[in-house]
Amino acid sequence: MRLQVPPNCDLTLGLRCVEKTEPGRTIWEMRADERFANPGGVIQGGFLSAMLDSSMGASAVTSLNGRRARVANAEMKVSFYRSAKVGSLLTCEAVAIESGSTVIFVEGTITDDEQRVIAKASSTYIAKERSQ
After folding, report:
1. What is the pLDDT of residue 10?
2. On the CB side of 26, how many CA atoms lie within 13 Å of its CA?
3. pLDDT confidence tier of residue 1, bands split at 50, 70 and 90
4. Exposure of 66 in the CB half-sphere (CA atoms within 13 A)
5. φ and ψ at 95, to 5 degrees?
6. How far is 126 from 23, CA to CA, in rounded Å?
7. Residue 15 and residue 50: Cα distance in Å, rounded?
8. Mean pLDDT, the chain, integer
9. Collapsing DSSP states into helix, strand and coil, what is residue 73?
C-alpha cells in the first residue's frame, strides 16, 4: 500500500505543516472554516481533535529518526479550554515526549491567532515496522 502525503483528511481540513525541522516536533495551521462549525457557531470539537491527531501523528513519525514504520493512535485525551471562532487561524504544536521502539507518547496544543489556548491533548501511538 502506497502512502498518500498529505492524506485526504488533512486536505479536507485544510491542515498545513509549517514546521518539521526538529525530530519529534511539528507545527500545523488550519483556518477555522465555517463548514466545521456546530449549531452554536463555533468549531466542533471533533474537527479540533482531528487537527490534534494529525499533528501528533506527524510528530510521532518524525520522532522515529528515519525508521520505516507506521504509527497508529492507540488512545487520545483531549481537553477543551475555549471555543475556536470561525475565521480564526488555528496553530497546533505537537511534541513527542517519549519515543521508544514501539510506543510513542505525544502532546499537542492548539492556539488561536490571539495566542489563546483552545485545546490540549495527549496521545499514545504504536509504531509498527513496515517493509516498504
Report:
1. 85
2. 21
3. low
4. 0
5. -135, 130
6. 17
7. 10
8. 93
9. strand
Tell me which residue has cell 466545521.
Answer: 36
Task: Give the span between the Cα atoms of 10 and 126, in whole angstroms.
Answer: 20
Full-model pTM: 0.92
**Lookup: cell for 114:** 490571539
Each residue's pLDDT tens digit, 36-49: 999 999 999 999 99
> What is the rounded distance in angstroms from the CA atom of residue 104 to the CA atom of residue 47?
23
Structural domain 8-129, CATH architecture: Roll (3.10)
Domain boundaries, the chain: 8-129
pLDDT digits (tens, 9 = 90+) for 67-96: 888 899 999 999 999 999 999 999 999 999
The whole-angstrom distance between residue 9's C-alpha and the CA centroid of its chain comes to: 11
What span, in angstroms and rounded, lies between the C-alpha atoms of 122 and 52? Answer: 9
CA–CA distance, 33 with 81 (Å, rounded to integer): 19
Residue 125 near residue 60 (C-beta atoms within 8 A)? yes
Give long-range contacts, CB 8 A cutoff, 24+ apart: 9-13. Answer: 9/50, 9/54, 10/54, 13/47, 13/50, 13/51, 13/54
User: Taking every pair of C-alpha atoms in the chain, what is the biggest distance, in angstroms?
Assistant: 47
